[in-house]
Amino acid sequence: MHDMILEMIARLLIPMIQLFGMYVLFHGHLSPGGSFSGGTIIAASLIFYSLVFRFSERKHRLQHDTSLLFEGGGALLYIVVGLVGIFFGYSFLTNRGVFPLGQAGRLWSSGMIAIITVGLGGKVAGTIFTLFQELLEGGTDTDGNH
Amino acid sequence: MVNITHTPVLIVVLLLSGAFVVALLSKYLQVGRFIFLLTAAMVLLLSTRLTFMVLEYGTIHYTLGGWAPPFGIEIVVDAFAAFSSLVIAGVSAVIFWFAVFGPREVNNETGYYSLLLLLTAAMHGMVLTGDLFNLFVFVEISSLAAIAIIAVKGTGESIEASFRYLVLSALGSGVVLFSIALIFMISGHLNMSYIHDALVITAGQYPLNIVLAVGFMLVGFAVKAALFPLHVWLPDAHSNAPTASSALLSGLVVKVYIIAFMRIVYLALGIPIFEILPIRQIFLVLASIAIIMGSVFAMVQDNIKRMLAYSTIAQVGYIFLGVGLFNQRAVEGAVFHILNHAIMKSLLFLSAGVIIHQSGHKKISELSGLGRRIPFTFAAFSIGALSMVGIPGTAGFISKLYLALGALDAGQTLFAILILISSLLNAIYYFPIIIAAYFGKDSPLDARDPAWATQLPLVVLSLGVLFFGLFPSIAIPLVRQTAQLFIK
User: Fold this and answer.
1) I want to staple B440 with a disulfide (CB 3.0 to 4.6 A). Which of A138, B96, B368, B421 is the partner?
2) Would you kindly state where each structural domain of chain A is located, as residue ranges?
Protein backbone atom coordinates (compact mmCIF):
# COMPACT_ATOMS: atom_id res chain seq x y z
CA MET A 1 0.00 0.00 0.00
CA HIS A 2 1.34 3.43 -0.94
CA ASP A 3 0.85 6.36 1.33
CA MET A 4 1.94 9.59 -0.37
CA ILE A 5 2.13 11.68 2.81
CA LEU A 6 4.07 9.06 4.74
CA GLU A 7 6.56 8.51 1.92
CA MET A 8 7.21 12.22 1.38
CA ILE A 9 7.72 12.83 5.10
CA ALA A 10 10.00 9.82 5.30
CA ARG A 11 12.08 11.09 2.36
CA LEU A 12 12.51 14.39 4.18
CA LEU A 13 13.17 12.94 7.61
CA ILE A 14 15.44 9.96 6.94
CA PRO A 15 18.48 12.01 5.75
CA MET A 16 18.07 14.34 8.71
CA ILE A 17 17.84 11.47 11.17
CA GLN A 18 20.91 9.84 9.68
CA LEU A 19 22.86 13.09 9.71
CA PHE A 20 21.95 13.65 13.35
CA GLY A 21 22.94 10.06 14.11
CA MET A 22 26.32 10.62 12.46
CA TYR A 23 26.76 13.84 14.45
CA VAL A 24 26.05 12.06 17.75
CA LEU A 25 28.34 9.22 16.70
CA PHE A 26 31.34 11.29 15.61
CA HIS A 27 31.11 13.64 18.60
CA GLY A 28 30.95 10.78 21.09
CA HIS A 29 34.20 11.79 22.75
CA LEU A 30 33.25 15.49 22.96
CA SER A 31 29.57 15.66 23.86
CA PRO A 32 26.88 13.41 25.34
CA GLY A 33 26.18 10.49 23.04
CA GLY A 34 28.49 8.17 21.25
CA SER A 35 28.29 4.74 19.71
CA PHE A 36 25.19 3.47 21.50
CA SER A 37 22.96 6.51 21.05
CA GLY A 38 24.35 7.34 17.60
CA GLY A 39 24.04 3.77 16.38
CA THR A 40 20.48 3.51 17.68
CA ILE A 41 19.48 6.72 15.91
CA ILE A 42 20.91 5.45 12.61
CA ALA A 43 19.18 2.10 13.12
CA ALA A 44 15.92 3.95 13.82
CA SER A 45 16.18 5.64 10.41
CA LEU A 46 16.76 2.27 8.73
CA ILE A 47 13.77 0.75 10.55
CA PHE A 48 11.68 3.78 9.55
CA TYR A 49 12.73 3.26 5.94
CA SER A 50 11.84 -0.40 5.82
CA LEU A 51 8.51 0.25 7.59
CA VAL A 52 7.46 2.93 5.10
CA PHE A 53 8.80 1.49 1.85
CA ARG A 54 7.26 -1.95 1.53
CA PHE A 55 9.36 -3.96 3.93
CA SER A 56 7.99 -7.24 2.60
CA GLU A 57 10.13 -6.96 -0.51
CA ARG A 58 13.65 -8.03 0.19
CA LYS A 59 15.36 -5.70 -2.29
CA HIS A 60 13.98 -2.59 -0.59
CA ARG A 61 15.82 -2.93 2.66
CA LEU A 62 19.22 -3.58 4.06
CA GLN A 63 19.92 -7.27 3.64
CA HIS A 64 20.09 -9.45 6.72
CA ASP A 65 23.65 -10.48 5.88
CA THR A 66 24.74 -6.86 5.59
CA SER A 67 23.47 -5.95 9.03
CA LEU A 68 25.16 -9.09 10.40
CA LEU A 69 28.38 -7.93 8.74
CA PHE A 70 28.13 -4.58 10.50
CA GLU A 71 27.46 -6.38 13.77
CA GLY A 72 30.51 -8.63 13.58
CA GLY A 73 32.69 -6.10 11.79
CA GLY A 74 32.17 -3.37 14.37
CA ALA A 75 33.35 -5.61 17.17
CA LEU A 76 36.28 -6.86 15.08
CA LEU A 77 37.34 -3.26 14.39
CA TYR A 78 37.49 -2.69 18.16
CA ILE A 79 39.73 -5.75 18.56
CA VAL A 80 41.99 -4.73 15.65
CA VAL A 81 42.39 -1.22 17.09
CA GLY A 82 43.31 -2.85 20.40
CA LEU A 83 45.90 -5.05 18.72
CA VAL A 84 47.59 -2.03 17.09
CA GLY A 85 48.85 -1.15 20.57
CA ILE A 86 50.53 -4.54 20.87
CA PHE A 87 52.20 -4.13 17.46
CA PHE A 88 53.77 -0.86 18.63
CA GLY A 89 55.14 -2.55 21.73
CA TYR A 90 52.61 -1.27 24.25
CA SER A 91 49.66 -2.97 26.00
CA PHE A 92 46.44 -4.08 24.38
CA LEU A 93 44.18 -1.06 23.72
CA THR A 94 46.93 1.52 24.24
CA ASN A 95 45.94 4.95 22.95
CA ARG A 96 48.65 7.39 23.97
CA GLY A 97 51.84 6.93 22.00
CA VAL A 98 50.22 4.82 19.30
CA PHE A 99 47.51 7.00 17.81
CA PRO A 100 47.84 10.77 17.14
CA LEU A 101 45.97 12.49 19.94
CA GLY A 102 45.33 15.86 18.25
CA GLN A 103 44.23 19.03 19.99
CA ALA A 104 41.83 18.72 22.92
CA GLY A 105 38.27 19.84 22.13
CA ARG A 106 38.58 19.43 18.36
CA LEU A 107 36.78 16.71 16.43
CA TRP A 108 39.99 14.70 15.86
CA SER A 109 41.28 14.75 19.38
CA SER A 110 41.00 11.35 20.96
CA GLY A 111 43.17 8.95 18.99
CA MET A 112 41.57 5.55 18.83
CA ILE A 113 38.40 6.49 20.75
CA ALA A 114 36.83 8.01 17.63
CA ILE A 115 37.63 4.91 15.55
CA ILE A 116 36.21 2.59 18.21
CA THR A 117 33.10 4.76 18.53
CA VAL A 118 32.42 4.54 14.80
CA GLY A 119 32.99 0.79 14.78
CA LEU A 120 30.72 0.24 17.75
CA GLY A 121 28.15 2.62 16.27
CA GLY A 122 28.02 0.36 13.22
CA LYS A 123 27.68 -2.65 15.50
CA VAL A 124 24.84 -1.13 17.53
CA ALA A 125 23.01 -0.02 14.37
CA GLY A 126 23.50 -3.50 12.91
CA THR A 127 22.30 -5.20 16.10
CA ILE A 128 19.17 -3.08 16.48
CA PHE A 129 18.31 -3.54 12.82
CA THR A 130 18.96 -7.31 13.01
CA LEU A 131 16.61 -7.52 15.99
CA PHE A 132 13.96 -5.68 14.00
CA GLN A 133 14.43 -8.01 11.05
CA GLU A 134 14.22 -11.07 13.28
CA LEU A 135 10.94 -9.78 14.69
CA LEU A 136 9.70 -9.09 11.18
CA GLU A 137 10.57 -12.57 9.95
CA GLY A 138 9.41 -14.29 13.13
CA GLY A 139 12.76 -15.98 13.66
CA THR A 140 13.75 -19.22 11.96
CA ASP A 141 11.54 -22.25 11.55
CA THR A 142 12.65 -25.75 12.52
CA ASP A 143 14.50 -26.26 9.23
CA GLY A 144 16.65 -23.18 9.73
CA ASN A 145 14.94 -21.24 6.92
CA HIS A 146 13.78 -17.68 7.30
CA MET B 1 53.91 0.47 31.61
CA VAL B 2 55.71 -2.47 30.05
CA ASN B 3 54.19 -5.92 30.26
CA ILE B 4 56.37 -8.99 30.18
CA THR B 5 53.87 -10.98 28.11
CA HIS B 6 50.71 -10.38 26.14
CA THR B 7 49.54 -13.98 26.52
CA PRO B 8 46.73 -13.43 29.08
CA VAL B 9 44.96 -10.75 27.05
CA LEU B 10 45.55 -12.60 23.78
CA ILE B 11 43.61 -15.62 25.10
CA VAL B 12 40.47 -13.54 25.58
CA VAL B 13 41.01 -11.45 22.43
CA LEU B 14 41.55 -14.51 20.26
CA LEU B 15 38.35 -16.15 21.49
CA LEU B 16 36.33 -12.96 21.04
CA SER B 17 37.60 -12.34 17.50
CA GLY B 18 37.02 -16.02 16.71
CA ALA B 19 33.43 -15.64 17.90
CA PHE B 20 32.80 -12.60 15.68
CA VAL B 21 34.49 -14.09 12.62
CA VAL B 22 32.74 -17.46 12.88
CA ALA B 23 29.35 -15.72 13.22
CA LEU B 24 29.90 -14.13 9.78
CA LEU B 25 30.72 -17.41 8.03
CA SER B 26 27.27 -19.00 7.82
CA LYS B 27 27.69 -19.34 4.04
CA TYR B 28 31.09 -20.99 4.38
CA LEU B 29 30.39 -23.68 6.95
CA GLN B 30 33.65 -25.61 6.48
CA VAL B 31 35.76 -22.47 6.90
CA GLY B 32 33.73 -21.56 9.99
CA ARG B 33 34.31 -24.99 11.54
CA PHE B 34 38.01 -24.81 10.77
CA ILE B 35 38.40 -21.36 12.37
CA PHE B 36 36.31 -22.51 15.35
CA LEU B 37 38.61 -25.46 16.06
CA LEU B 38 41.77 -23.52 15.20
CA THR B 39 40.85 -20.84 17.75
CA ALA B 40 40.34 -23.47 20.45
CA ALA B 41 43.68 -25.11 19.63
CA MET B 42 45.56 -21.80 19.68
CA VAL B 43 43.96 -20.83 22.98
CA LEU B 44 45.03 -24.18 24.43
CA LEU B 45 48.61 -23.48 23.34
CA LEU B 46 48.52 -19.96 24.81
CA SER B 47 47.06 -21.25 28.09
CA THR B 48 49.77 -23.88 28.34
CA ARG B 49 52.43 -21.26 27.72
CA LEU B 50 50.83 -18.99 30.32
CA THR B 51 50.85 -21.81 32.87
CA PHE B 52 54.54 -22.52 32.33
CA MET B 53 55.32 -18.80 32.62
CA VAL B 54 53.41 -18.57 35.90
CA LEU B 55 55.24 -21.63 37.24
CA GLU B 56 58.55 -20.05 36.27
CA TYR B 57 58.10 -16.36 37.08
CA GLY B 58 55.27 -16.32 39.61
CA THR B 59 52.20 -14.09 39.34
CA ILE B 60 51.92 -12.13 36.08
CA HIS B 61 50.31 -8.67 36.07
CA TYR B 62 49.07 -7.15 32.82
CA THR B 63 47.64 -3.66 32.54
CA LEU B 64 45.28 -2.82 29.69
CA GLY B 65 45.64 0.35 27.66
CA GLY B 66 48.81 1.45 29.42
CA TRP B 67 46.88 2.86 32.37
CA ALA B 68 48.41 2.08 35.76
CA PRO B 69 46.35 -0.22 38.03
CA PRO B 70 44.01 1.89 40.16
CA PHE B 71 42.46 3.37 36.99
CA GLY B 72 43.16 0.84 34.27
CA ILE B 73 41.94 -2.71 34.14
CA GLU B 74 44.50 -5.16 35.45
CA ILE B 75 44.79 -8.84 34.65
CA VAL B 76 46.27 -10.86 37.50
CA VAL B 77 47.45 -14.33 36.49
CA ASP B 78 48.39 -16.25 39.62
CA ALA B 79 48.67 -20.02 39.91
CA PHE B 80 44.90 -20.40 40.36
CA ALA B 81 44.11 -18.28 37.29
CA ALA B 82 46.62 -20.17 35.14
CA PHE B 83 45.32 -23.52 36.38
CA SER B 84 41.68 -22.58 35.73
CA SER B 85 42.51 -21.13 32.33
CA LEU B 86 44.31 -24.33 31.35
CA VAL B 87 41.39 -26.50 32.53
CA ILE B 88 38.90 -24.35 30.60
CA ALA B 89 41.04 -24.30 27.45
CA GLY B 90 41.72 -28.05 27.51
CA VAL B 91 38.22 -29.30 28.26
CA SER B 92 36.51 -26.77 25.99
CA ALA B 93 38.79 -27.72 23.05
CA VAL B 94 37.67 -31.36 23.37
CA ILE B 95 34.00 -30.34 23.66
CA PHE B 96 34.35 -28.05 20.61
CA TRP B 97 35.61 -31.02 18.60
CA PHE B 98 32.50 -32.92 19.65
CA ALA B 99 30.29 -29.94 18.73
CA VAL B 100 31.68 -30.07 15.19
CA PHE B 101 31.92 -33.84 14.63
CA GLY B 102 29.22 -35.09 17.01
CA PRO B 103 25.53 -35.54 16.24
CA ARG B 104 23.79 -32.47 14.75
CA GLU B 105 21.44 -30.92 17.28
CA VAL B 106 21.22 -27.26 16.25
CA ASN B 107 20.12 -25.51 13.07
CA ASN B 108 22.29 -22.41 12.91
CA GLU B 109 25.69 -24.06 13.25
CA THR B 110 27.99 -21.04 12.92
CA GLY B 111 25.81 -19.08 15.33
CA TYR B 112 26.17 -21.92 17.83
CA TYR B 113 29.96 -22.03 17.45
CA SER B 114 30.08 -18.27 17.89
CA LEU B 115 28.16 -18.56 21.17
CA LEU B 116 30.43 -21.35 22.40
CA LEU B 117 33.51 -19.20 21.69
CA LEU B 118 31.90 -16.21 23.39
CA LEU B 119 31.08 -18.30 26.47
CA THR B 120 34.64 -19.62 26.63
CA ALA B 121 36.06 -16.10 26.23
CA ALA B 122 33.91 -14.95 29.16
CA MET B 123 35.07 -17.89 31.29
CA HIS B 124 38.73 -17.16 30.58
CA GLY B 125 38.14 -13.48 31.29
CA MET B 126 36.42 -14.28 34.56
CA VAL B 127 39.29 -16.33 35.93
CA LEU B 128 42.07 -14.03 34.65
CA THR B 129 40.82 -10.56 35.53
CA GLY B 130 41.91 -8.62 38.58
CA ASP B 131 39.21 -5.99 38.29
CA LEU B 132 35.86 -6.40 40.01
CA PHE B 133 33.75 -4.59 37.41
CA ASN B 134 35.53 -6.32 34.56
CA LEU B 135 34.63 -9.56 36.33
CA PHE B 136 30.97 -8.53 36.39
CA VAL B 137 31.04 -7.83 32.64
CA PHE B 138 32.40 -11.32 31.99
CA VAL B 139 29.81 -12.80 34.39
CA GLU B 140 27.08 -11.17 32.30
CA ILE B 141 28.56 -12.32 28.98
CA SER B 142 28.90 -15.89 30.21
CA SER B 143 25.38 -15.96 31.69
CA LEU B 144 23.77 -14.73 28.47
CA ALA B 145 25.87 -17.01 26.26
CA ALA B 146 25.13 -19.97 28.55
CA ILE B 147 21.40 -19.29 28.32
CA ALA B 148 21.63 -18.98 24.55
CA ILE B 149 23.43 -22.30 24.06
CA ILE B 150 20.56 -24.03 25.89
CA ALA B 151 17.78 -22.29 23.97
CA VAL B 152 19.54 -22.90 20.63
CA LYS B 153 18.19 -26.47 20.57
CA GLY B 154 14.77 -24.95 19.85
CA THR B 155 12.54 -27.52 21.56
CA GLY B 156 9.82 -26.39 23.95
CA GLU B 157 11.57 -27.86 27.00
CA SER B 158 14.91 -26.25 26.23
CA ILE B 159 13.35 -22.81 25.73
CA GLU B 160 11.40 -23.14 28.99
CA ALA B 161 14.53 -24.30 30.83
CA SER B 162 16.65 -21.48 29.42
CA PHE B 163 13.99 -18.93 30.34
CA ARG B 164 13.99 -20.18 33.94
CA TYR B 165 17.78 -20.03 33.91
CA LEU B 166 17.60 -16.50 32.47
CA VAL B 167 15.37 -15.26 35.30
CA LEU B 168 17.46 -16.77 38.10
CA SER B 169 20.75 -15.90 36.45
CA ALA B 170 19.69 -12.27 35.92
CA LEU B 171 18.74 -12.17 39.60
CA GLY B 172 22.19 -13.48 40.45
CA SER B 173 23.91 -10.93 38.22
CA GLY B 174 21.93 -8.07 39.71
CA VAL B 175 22.80 -9.17 43.21
CA VAL B 176 26.50 -9.44 42.32
CA LEU B 177 26.42 -5.94 40.83
CA PHE B 178 24.81 -4.59 43.99
CA SER B 179 27.53 -6.24 46.04
CA ILE B 180 30.24 -4.69 43.84
CA ALA B 181 28.59 -1.28 44.35
CA LEU B 182 28.61 -1.78 48.13
CA ILE B 183 32.29 -2.71 48.07
CA PHE B 184 33.11 0.26 45.82
CA MET B 185 31.22 2.50 48.24
CA ILE B 186 33.60 1.83 51.12
CA SER B 187 36.82 1.10 49.24
CA GLY B 188 36.67 3.55 46.32
CA HIS B 189 38.36 1.06 44.01
CA LEU B 190 37.42 -1.63 41.54
CA ASN B 191 40.87 -3.16 41.26
CA MET B 192 40.90 -6.14 43.61
CA SER B 193 44.29 -5.61 45.26
CA TYR B 194 43.49 -1.92 45.87
CA ILE B 195 40.12 -2.93 47.34
CA HIS B 196 41.98 -5.25 49.66
CA ASP B 197 44.30 -2.47 50.85
CA ALA B 198 41.40 -0.04 51.33
CA LEU B 199 39.23 -2.56 53.17
CA VAL B 200 41.96 -3.25 55.71
CA ILE B 201 41.51 0.35 56.86
CA THR B 202 37.80 1.05 56.30
CA ALA B 203 36.08 -2.30 56.82
CA GLY B 204 35.88 -1.89 60.59
CA GLN B 205 33.97 1.38 60.25
CA TYR B 206 31.32 -0.04 57.91
CA PRO B 207 30.54 -3.55 59.20
CA LEU B 208 27.02 -3.55 57.73
CA ASN B 209 28.33 -2.78 54.24
CA ILE B 210 30.72 -5.70 54.42
CA VAL B 211 28.05 -8.10 55.67
CA LEU B 212 25.62 -7.02 52.93
CA ALA B 213 28.26 -7.06 50.20
CA VAL B 214 29.54 -10.51 51.09
CA GLY B 215 26.00 -11.83 51.55
CA PHE B 216 24.88 -10.59 48.16
CA MET B 217 28.06 -11.82 46.50
CA LEU B 218 27.57 -15.24 48.08
CA VAL B 219 23.94 -15.51 46.96
CA GLY B 220 24.72 -14.24 43.47
CA PHE B 221 27.52 -16.70 42.82
CA ALA B 222 25.72 -19.53 44.64
CA VAL B 223 22.75 -19.17 42.27
CA LYS B 224 25.07 -19.32 39.28
CA ALA B 225 27.16 -22.16 40.69
CA ALA B 226 23.98 -24.06 41.74
CA LEU B 227 24.75 -24.49 45.43
CA PHE B 228 22.04 -26.66 46.94
CA PRO B 229 18.89 -24.64 47.69
CA LEU B 230 19.57 -22.38 44.70
CA HIS B 231 20.07 -25.19 42.18
CA VAL B 232 16.47 -25.38 40.91
CA TRP B 233 17.33 -24.14 37.41
CA LEU B 234 20.16 -26.60 36.81
CA PRO B 235 18.51 -30.01 36.15
CA ASP B 236 16.21 -28.68 33.43
CA ALA B 237 18.82 -26.43 31.87
CA HIS B 238 21.61 -29.00 31.70
CA SER B 239 19.45 -31.94 30.63
CA ASN B 240 17.57 -30.14 27.83
CA ALA B 241 20.56 -28.47 26.19
CA PRO B 242 22.38 -29.89 23.14
CA THR B 243 24.99 -32.46 24.21
CA ALA B 244 28.03 -30.22 23.71
CA SER B 245 26.30 -27.42 25.66
CA SER B 246 25.45 -29.79 28.51
CA ALA B 247 29.07 -30.90 28.77
CA LEU B 248 30.36 -27.33 28.69
CA LEU B 249 27.77 -26.06 31.19
CA SER B 250 28.10 -28.91 33.65
CA GLY B 251 31.82 -29.39 33.25
CA LEU B 252 33.04 -25.82 33.28
CA VAL B 253 30.49 -23.03 33.59
CA VAL B 254 29.15 -23.79 37.08
CA LYS B 255 32.70 -24.10 38.41
CA VAL B 256 33.92 -20.84 36.92
CA TYR B 257 31.65 -18.94 39.30
CA ILE B 258 33.17 -20.79 42.27
CA ILE B 259 36.64 -19.89 40.98
CA ALA B 260 35.57 -16.25 40.57
CA PHE B 261 34.19 -16.17 44.13
CA MET B 262 37.35 -17.75 45.54
CA ARG B 263 39.49 -15.22 43.66
CA ILE B 264 37.39 -12.33 45.01
CA VAL B 265 37.82 -13.73 48.53
CA TYR B 266 41.60 -14.00 48.48
CA LEU B 267 42.37 -11.07 46.17
CA ALA B 268 39.85 -8.45 47.26
CA LEU B 269 38.10 -9.28 50.53
CA GLY B 270 41.02 -10.97 52.24
CA ILE B 271 41.03 -14.29 54.05
CA PRO B 272 40.11 -12.75 57.47
CA ILE B 273 36.59 -12.37 56.06
CA PHE B 274 36.24 -16.09 56.80
CA GLU B 275 36.76 -15.39 60.49
CA ILE B 276 34.50 -12.33 60.61
CA LEU B 277 31.52 -13.86 58.80
CA PRO B 278 30.24 -17.45 58.97
CA ILE B 279 30.86 -18.13 55.26
CA ARG B 280 32.66 -21.40 55.96
CA GLN B 281 29.84 -22.72 58.13
CA ILE B 282 27.28 -21.81 55.46
CA PHE B 283 29.40 -23.60 52.84
CA LEU B 284 29.83 -26.69 55.02
CA VAL B 285 26.13 -27.06 55.83
CA LEU B 286 24.84 -26.32 52.32
CA ALA B 287 27.54 -28.43 50.66
CA SER B 288 26.73 -31.41 52.92
CA ILE B 289 23.04 -31.17 52.05
CA ALA B 290 23.95 -30.75 48.36
CA ILE B 291 26.14 -33.86 48.34
CA ILE B 292 23.43 -36.05 49.88
CA MET B 293 20.36 -34.53 48.21
CA GLY B 294 21.99 -34.27 44.78
CA SER B 295 22.70 -37.99 44.89
CA VAL B 296 19.24 -38.83 46.25
CA PHE B 297 17.56 -36.82 43.48
CA ALA B 298 19.87 -38.41 40.89
CA MET B 299 18.88 -41.88 42.07
CA VAL B 300 15.21 -41.44 41.25
CA GLN B 301 15.74 -40.04 37.73
CA ASP B 302 15.00 -42.19 34.70
CA ASN B 303 16.31 -39.71 32.12
CA ILE B 304 20.05 -40.26 31.87
CA LYS B 305 20.96 -36.61 31.20
CA ARG B 306 18.76 -35.47 34.10
CA MET B 307 20.53 -37.93 36.36
CA LEU B 308 23.90 -36.51 35.30
CA ALA B 309 22.61 -32.97 35.94
CA TYR B 310 21.58 -33.87 39.51
CA SER B 311 24.94 -35.52 40.00
CA THR B 312 26.56 -32.17 39.10
CA ILE B 313 24.75 -30.58 42.05
CA ALA B 314 26.35 -33.15 44.37
CA GLN B 315 29.78 -32.64 42.79
CA VAL B 316 29.56 -28.86 43.14
CA GLY B 317 28.88 -29.62 46.79
CA TYR B 318 32.30 -31.33 47.05
CA ILE B 319 34.06 -28.21 45.82
CA PHE B 320 32.18 -25.98 48.26
CA LEU B 321 32.90 -28.51 51.02
CA GLY B 322 36.64 -28.30 50.32
CA VAL B 323 36.54 -24.51 50.43
CA GLY B 324 34.48 -24.60 53.62
CA LEU B 325 36.88 -26.99 55.40
CA PHE B 326 39.60 -24.46 54.62
CA ASN B 327 42.87 -26.25 55.19
CA GLN B 328 45.69 -27.08 52.82
CA ARG B 329 44.63 -30.57 51.81
CA ALA B 330 40.89 -29.84 51.65
CA VAL B 331 41.40 -26.83 49.37
CA GLU B 332 43.81 -28.87 47.26
CA GLY B 333 41.06 -31.48 46.98
CA ALA B 334 38.51 -28.83 45.97
CA VAL B 335 40.80 -27.30 43.34
CA PHE B 336 41.74 -30.73 42.02
CA HIS B 337 38.06 -31.63 41.88
CA ILE B 338 37.46 -28.62 39.62
CA LEU B 339 39.79 -30.26 37.09
CA ASN B 340 38.61 -33.83 37.65
CA HIS B 341 34.92 -33.07 37.57
CA ALA B 342 35.37 -30.94 34.42
CA ILE B 343 36.93 -33.95 32.67
CA MET B 344 34.66 -36.71 33.97
CA LYS B 345 31.35 -34.88 33.74
CA SER B 346 32.11 -33.76 30.17
CA LEU B 347 32.99 -37.37 29.40
CA LEU B 348 29.72 -38.61 30.92
CA PHE B 349 27.57 -36.01 29.16
CA LEU B 350 29.24 -36.53 25.79
CA SER B 351 29.02 -40.33 25.98
CA ALA B 352 25.42 -40.11 27.21
CA GLY B 353 24.68 -37.83 24.25
CA VAL B 354 26.21 -40.36 21.86
CA ILE B 355 24.28 -43.22 23.49
CA ILE B 356 21.01 -41.31 23.23
CA HIS B 357 21.69 -40.40 19.62
CA GLN B 358 22.75 -43.90 18.54
CA SER B 359 19.98 -45.76 20.36
CA GLY B 360 17.19 -43.21 20.27
CA HIS B 361 16.46 -43.83 23.96
CA LYS B 362 17.15 -41.47 26.81
CA LYS B 363 15.59 -43.47 29.64
CA ILE B 364 17.93 -45.48 31.83
CA SER B 365 15.45 -48.37 31.93
CA GLU B 366 15.64 -48.70 28.14
CA LEU B 367 19.42 -48.88 27.92
CA SER B 368 19.60 -52.54 29.02
CA GLY B 369 21.91 -54.65 26.87
CA LEU B 370 23.18 -51.72 24.85
CA GLY B 371 26.70 -52.13 26.22
CA ARG B 372 27.19 -55.03 23.84
CA ARG B 373 25.79 -53.04 20.88
CA ILE B 374 27.68 -49.80 21.55
CA PRO B 375 30.69 -51.21 23.43
CA PHE B 376 33.09 -48.37 22.83
CA THR B 377 30.88 -45.51 23.95
CA PHE B 378 29.67 -47.48 26.95
CA ALA B 379 33.27 -48.17 27.92
CA ALA B 380 33.89 -44.41 27.97
CA PHE B 381 30.70 -43.89 30.01
CA SER B 382 31.82 -46.60 32.44
CA ILE B 383 35.22 -44.97 32.96
CA GLY B 384 33.49 -41.68 33.74
CA ALA B 385 31.06 -43.42 36.10
CA LEU B 386 33.84 -45.29 37.92
CA SER B 387 35.65 -42.00 38.38
CA MET B 388 32.44 -40.42 39.72
CA VAL B 389 32.18 -43.18 42.32
CA GLY B 390 35.85 -42.73 43.20
CA ILE B 391 37.42 -46.07 42.29
CA PRO B 392 41.22 -45.93 42.80
CA GLY B 393 43.07 -45.41 39.54
CA THR B 394 40.60 -42.82 38.30
CA ALA B 395 40.77 -39.06 38.77
CA GLY B 396 37.70 -38.92 41.02
CA PHE B 397 39.49 -41.00 43.65
CA ILE B 398 42.33 -38.50 44.07
CA SER B 399 40.17 -35.47 44.77
CA LYS B 400 37.90 -37.43 47.11
CA LEU B 401 40.96 -38.73 48.93
CA TYR B 402 42.30 -35.21 49.39
CA LEU B 403 38.91 -33.94 50.54
CA ALA B 404 38.59 -36.76 53.06
CA LEU B 405 42.13 -36.20 54.34
CA GLY B 406 41.36 -32.49 54.59
CA ALA B 407 38.25 -33.25 56.63
CA LEU B 408 40.33 -35.40 59.00
CA ASP B 409 42.98 -32.66 59.22
CA ALA B 410 40.27 -30.23 60.23
CA GLY B 411 39.15 -32.68 62.92
CA GLN B 412 35.74 -33.01 61.24
CA THR B 413 35.38 -36.79 60.96
CA LEU B 414 31.71 -36.30 60.09
CA PHE B 415 32.58 -34.85 56.70
CA ALA B 416 35.00 -37.68 55.90
CA ILE B 417 32.15 -40.13 56.61
CA LEU B 418 29.86 -37.97 54.46
CA ILE B 419 32.25 -38.30 51.51
CA LEU B 420 32.27 -42.10 51.97
CA ILE B 421 28.47 -42.28 52.14
CA SER B 422 28.21 -40.09 49.06
CA SER B 423 30.56 -42.40 47.14
CA LEU B 424 28.25 -45.29 48.00
CA LEU B 425 25.25 -43.25 46.86
CA ASN B 426 27.06 -42.51 43.57
CA ALA B 427 27.66 -46.24 43.14
CA ILE B 428 23.94 -46.89 43.70
CA TYR B 429 22.91 -44.83 40.70
CA TYR B 430 25.87 -45.30 38.35
CA PHE B 431 26.53 -49.05 38.65
CA PRO B 432 23.05 -50.35 37.72
CA ILE B 433 23.37 -48.55 34.35
CA ILE B 434 26.69 -50.22 33.60
CA ILE B 435 25.57 -53.64 34.89
CA ALA B 436 22.32 -53.53 32.93
CA ALA B 437 24.11 -52.33 29.80
CA TYR B 438 26.66 -55.13 29.79
CA PHE B 439 24.91 -58.01 31.55
CA GLY B 440 21.21 -57.18 31.16
CA LYS B 441 18.88 -58.79 28.65
CA ASP B 442 19.86 -58.22 25.05
CA SER B 443 18.59 -55.10 23.35
CA PRO B 444 16.44 -55.49 20.21
CA LEU B 445 17.88 -52.22 18.88
CA ASP B 446 20.24 -52.14 15.95
CA ALA B 447 22.55 -49.49 17.40
CA ARG B 448 26.29 -49.25 16.84
CA ASP B 449 29.25 -47.07 17.73
CA PRO B 450 29.48 -43.77 15.83
CA ALA B 451 32.30 -42.69 13.48
CA TRP B 452 35.82 -42.27 14.86
CA ALA B 453 35.66 -38.46 14.76
CA THR B 454 32.72 -38.52 17.19
CA GLN B 455 34.54 -40.95 19.45
CA LEU B 456 37.83 -39.08 19.58
CA PRO B 457 36.69 -36.65 22.33
CA LEU B 458 35.49 -39.62 24.41
CA VAL B 459 38.89 -41.30 24.03
CA VAL B 460 40.76 -38.13 24.99
CA LEU B 461 38.59 -37.51 28.05
CA SER B 462 38.73 -41.17 29.15
CA LEU B 463 42.51 -41.08 28.91
CA GLY B 464 42.42 -37.82 30.86
CA VAL B 465 40.41 -39.45 33.67
CA LEU B 466 42.84 -42.37 33.85
CA PHE B 467 45.92 -40.16 33.48
CA PHE B 468 45.02 -37.86 36.36
CA GLY B 469 44.01 -40.90 38.39
CA LEU B 470 47.35 -42.62 37.91
CA PHE B 471 49.68 -39.62 37.70
CA PRO B 472 48.05 -36.86 39.79
CA SER B 473 51.52 -35.50 40.55
CA ILE B 474 51.54 -33.70 37.16
CA ALA B 475 48.87 -31.29 38.38
CA ILE B 476 49.97 -31.14 42.00
CA PRO B 477 52.44 -28.17 41.77
CA LEU B 478 49.73 -25.84 40.46
CA VAL B 479 47.09 -27.22 42.80
CA ARG B 480 49.40 -26.83 45.79
CA GLN B 481 50.31 -23.25 44.86
CA THR B 482 46.62 -22.44 44.46
CA ALA B 483 45.80 -23.81 47.88
CA GLN B 484 48.66 -21.80 49.36
CA LEU B 485 47.31 -18.62 47.75
CA PHE B 486 44.04 -19.35 49.44
CA ILE B 487 45.27 -20.48 52.84
CA LYS B 488 48.34 -18.17 53.10
Assistant:
1) B368
2) 4-137
